[in-house]
């Protein structure tokens, strides 16, 4: 189909019309003018007008522009004053009665303008689905969610972890699995391929499919919809040709204008084509395929091209209203007739501005290309080397321009007239730093998430300090943030008094957080001089903007229920590390200043904008990764997301990537109004870059390029057949158009040389030398050079001749940076000094410093329990919990009875293995059937409480203990239907902790545990009574011992024995443990470094705070049924006294004591510290659990005196008591 020039005063379009714009050709002006004409000439009511675009900012701008166009046109038609507006002239050209009618129509349209539908595609879909009701098959109660990244991450993590714990063979690494799943979730409409892959790829594909299914299931369960769901639902509602959805939409709107149509995708086009591609509806598709650069957001240029083929009419906008004519002419020389990808060609345009508005600069040339002097034989520079030269060169050039007295349209050039455009933010940061050094202000415009900025890192470090203010390392990191403002030198030289000053400042922020969340923290930080500190630094506006933006994002999370510091920290860490490409609008970095400053922007963010002077320093660089995980390909009209290596390395993927970079180069170069400054260097990455392919891909050698440019200059530019980097509109659909080096006749041109061939200007051999004599014949051979066609690697001299040829034809002025040739580095004199290995004095290492846990301290206390120590629970959660260990106390009575041969063990090494008391096969079962030694040397249980334990028939073993812990950690114990909630959690946790049991049987026992009073009183708190806001499951901690990183003493465990004897009475259940601590095995252990661990449950009740540890130990007699009598208080006290559990109770009490002291205002241990509870769950039978001798069966409690907590804490800190 031929393409006509669109005239705004021509016949109004009917049917489906494609209007192809180019950069600066007035797309938005045209759209507003068309809307006005339909209202004025056809009398179309404004509410029958539908204008759709792809972003909220664009829809708001369109609304304002269309309203302004209507109002301005009304004013012009009511006036008889002369006008230069072609639209007004056209509308005035009618009879007086018709003119009066048109004025009335405009007045009505302006008055009723709010009834016009001007919206984003997603707003439009939401509006339509609500109006369709049951015809739209949409859940009216569902919530539209802008950002579902967190839900996506949760699904990916959950399924990956489940596969990992089930040891699924060939499970991919986490990073690979995450990227695989992200691709699938971000391309919901694409078919997955391959469908039946064997081996590791098959496992990956299975995970991807399950992630998609689970994501949809969780969305339904949460009653949320994504924007993609809206589109899918509307497309499905429109599938029936005679359905109510199509009829209602066609009755509702008569004229539909779709802006930025190049960014459409298959589902969006389904919606528009099904609803409006019909007789009686004017469907106008307006876009510039040369600016289709949002493939990573789902934009599909293939859909645009397919839609273009179905249009009734194709037109193009011919006039550039942005750029000066000299700049347009230079860009035409460089790009006219070039195919930026198959079917997308740069058409000629005329310039509206005939003069060059820039004057008096060091170089007024409209396009400048800067490069370096290179010498044949030198190694190709790496992009890292080039970056280090480009950053300062860009800043130097801008500095020269601003100091030159240059004028723009008669006024001095200002920093805000200049923009620097790069592909990635890291390059913008490098250039910004160079501008800072020269005192040139800059402002960053970026699509980067604010959660991936230095400000977010500062917030994370502050929150981590607020969470654990006792840790000097965290306080030190917080001191280096803008919230405190220390330098590294200050931190390095700070003494304890100065550190304490920072800690006090941190504590004030903790108080603020508990009072009013993140917003209150920011308020206090402002009062402490945050703004003054930040704004006193160069570029402080950017940092302060990001700090305040991060605070807003964090505050939103608090409002959504994420009230705890640990959850906020975990969320921030996940967000900053997330590989999601596109941040939600609310998290995109904001403009930091409206001051006079150079604009620094990514190319993607610059689309739609214009700047008088544009610097684009890295268009010569593009690295095509060969490690992609998935790629979208198109086969037989289907959009396929392929993980197949053949597709990942295939020609379609390469063509799409190269085409995207060509279009990015086009967007960057066409932002300029008066001058464009480019750089070029022959790096390893240049061959796949847009600018490099423009410079060296349009002809095989400089002589052929000269002939090509002469043909363009002599009026053949409009013929897009001569020497270009892709296919013309006429042959784009032909089979040969996508082939490497295909000629117009579809014949492949063979290459005599590989990609690494370098031709010499003095020695052109073979067909190349013959072609030089007849450049025209060479042009004929190379009339089509597709994006798949490799670019020949030339010598440095040939490259320079290419560039000079372009410069001679007016494409740009060529500037060689510096002067002269690069001098080789002076030779390095070899050293005659004999080299020796440096000696390391390891005596400086303090081998007593460590990160200790309860398990490691207890295990080290008894060499005879070495095996049990190896099985002890690692409190850092590195491996699965084995909680039911009892490490014996050396020298205690009955100590040997705690250790028995593992069931099923034999003689030899296996027979020497000992296992901890607890969840093992019951005495008398299996191989342990002959074992009759009592486990605990205490009086036999009484006969009064012979009721069986609810867990008497349940399995034993460490895995069972971990299962019980996990259910108690994750279940909602205040759920309306507790049993159903417990059952769901048991079934879910059985995946991770597989035990042979009937889930309902465990639920029966767990329900009894949760409803047992945790004290002798009938109204004592139960687990089901503790609200979520009053409980903290698995509280991780890291407590410094004797100063942590900077030890100031060397306390030992023995010192705690004296404290116990001083404060505990003779009948205290832990008093006997003082003897164990005083012994050599325990007492000699040094408390130096950090104490780490995790508390099963910390809860608050009636203003007091308690520690809970769950135990599933089997305390029954060998060969006897397990009853509640086995868990009477006397037996629990004995079990505690003959184990290491007292050490755990003591240490964890100190942890909670310190935590409350730091966090709770006016903390008083006598008033606020409740005590420690060990819940032996096998002895808990619900509300009727017996009370014996003043204690509840299954519940061991310890209430330490208030004074002992301070003294024990001082021991661990190495201080004086």
UniProtKB/TrEMBL annotation:
Residue sites binding ATP per the record: 21-28
Description of its domains: The N-terminal DNA-binding domain is a ssDNA-dependent ATPase and has ATP-dependent 3'-5' helicase function. This domain interacts with RecC.
Cofactor(s) this protein requires: Mg(2+)
Family stated for the protein in its record: Belongs to the helicase family. UvrD subfamily.
Catalytic residues in the record: 1109 (for nuclease activity)
Region (Nuclease activity, interacts with RecD and RecA) residue spans: 848-1217
Protein name: RecBCD enzyme subunit RecB
Catalytic activity reported: ATP + H2O = ADP + phosphate + H(+); Exonucleolytic cleavage (in the presence of ATP) in either 5'- to 3'- or 3'- to 5'-direction to yield 5'-phosphooligonucleotides; Couples ATP hydrolysis with the unwinding of duplex DNA by translocating in the 3'-5' direction
GO terms for MF: 3'-5' DNA helicase activity; ATP binding; ATP hydrolysis activity; DNA binding; exodeoxyribonuclease V activity; magnesium ion binding
Sequence ranges assigned to domain UvrD-like helicase C-terminal in this UniProt record: 335-608
Residue span, UvrD-like helicase ATP-binding domain: 1-324
PROSITE patterns tied to this protein: UVRD_HELICASE_ATP_BIND, UVRD_HELICASE_CTER
UniProt-listed Pfam families: UvrD-helicase, UvrD_C
Sites where the protein binds Mg(2+): 965, 1096, 1109
E.C. numbers: 3.1.11.5, 5.6.2.4
Subunit and partners: Heterotrimer of RecB, RecC and RecD. All subunits contribute to DNA-binding. Interacts with RecA.
Free-text comment on the cofactor: Binds 1 Mg(2+) ion per subunit.
Gene3D superfamilies tied to this protein: 3.90.320.10, P-loop containing nucleotide triphosphate hydrolases, PCRA, domain 4
Role, per record: A helicase/nuclease that prepares dsDNA breaks (DSB) for recombinational DNA repair. Binds to DSBs and unwinds DNA via a highly rapid and processive ATP-dependent bidirectional helicase activity. Unwinds dsDNA until it encounters a Chi (crossover hotspot instigator) sequence from the 3' direction. Cuts ssDNA a few nucleotides 3' to the Chi site. The properties and activities of the enzyme are changed at Chi. The Chi-altered holoenzyme produces a long 3'-ssDNA overhang and facilitates RecA-binding to the ssDNA for homologous DNA recombination and repair.
Biased composition, class Basic and acidic residues, residue ranges: 746-756
Region (DNA-binding and helicase activity, interacts with RecC): 1-824
